[in-house]
Design brief:
The structure is a single chain. By secondary structure, this protein is an alpha+beta fold. It folds into 2 domains: 1-32; 44-202, no CATH class. Helix content is 15%, strand content 50%. It has 1 helix and 11 strands; from the N terminus they run H-E-E-E-E-E-E-E-E-E-E-E. The protein has a 6-stranded antiparallel beta sheet with strand order 5-1-11-10-7-8, with no helix packed on it. A 5-stranded antiparallel beta sheet has the order 2-3-4-6-9, with no helix packed on it. A hairpin with a 5-residue loop joins strand 3 (70-78) and strand 4 (84-93).
């Protein structure tokens, strides 16, 4: 019985040692490959690409860009008793910088304008900005993302608002690449208009 207990104890310690070794090796590999543990010194994040795209999951919103920094959203639908509901809003944001030094303290501004909110139902709308790894889903930020600002509205409070967000330019690489993205997501319900600014780190 003691031999079995001793063997089990030794096996448990061996498994623990292996697990610790895997964690250490993974962290070291991440550091070596330029992962989140690598702090950037010097150089700049340089804007290299801009992309805009509408994602209409409900298909009841018409997005009309008036410039590269402003879009109008008209959301309209008819309920089961033929009443027409309308949410009309405009979103505008400050042009992101062409260059950013890692760790520099910066700010960006967003403007939400309520044009019409003609519905008794609750419709969530607003605008959010955050930095994250390239390819990140606009709906699912990673734990390492950097939030810049968020404006959220609904049927209880939909007055126009100007909001300034303060942030530190990314001080670390988000993954093994030398790129990151600033995602600006304007949304009404489940319909979204997303502008993605891609930055490349240049030492």
């Amino acid at each position: 019985m003691n031999k079995i207990y001793s063997f089990s104890k030794i096996s448990g310690l061996a498994l623990l040692a292996i697990a610790l070794l895997v964690i250490v090796n993974t962290s070291y590999a991440q550091y070596e490959s330029g992962g989140n543990l690598t702090e950037l010194t010097g150089g700049n994040w340089v804007l290299t690409n801009v992309k805009q795209e509408a994602y209409n999951k409900q298909s009841i919103t018409t997005w009309t860009p008036s410039s590269a920094l402003e879009v109008n959203a008209l959301c309209s639908w008819k309920d089961i008793i033929d009443i027409i509901h309308t949410v009309d809003a405009s979103f505008k944001w400050q042009e992101p910088p062409q260059k950013m030094q890692p760790g520099s303290y910066m700010n960006l501004e967003a403007v939400y304008t309520n044009n019409e909110y003609s519905t008794t139902g609750r419709v969530n709308l607003g605008i959010k900005m955050f930095f994250d790894a390239v390819g990140t889903n606009y709906m699912a930020a990673n734990p390492t993302s950097i939030e810049v600002l968020k404006v959220s509205k609904d049927n209880r409070q939909y007055n126009s608002e100007v909001k300034k967000g303060f942030f530190y330019a990314p001080k670390n690489l988000f993954d093994e690449s030398n790129e990151c993205q600033l995602i600006i997501d304007c949304f009404i319900g489940k319909d979204h208009y997303v502008t993605t600014y891609t930055y490349t780190y240049q030492p």
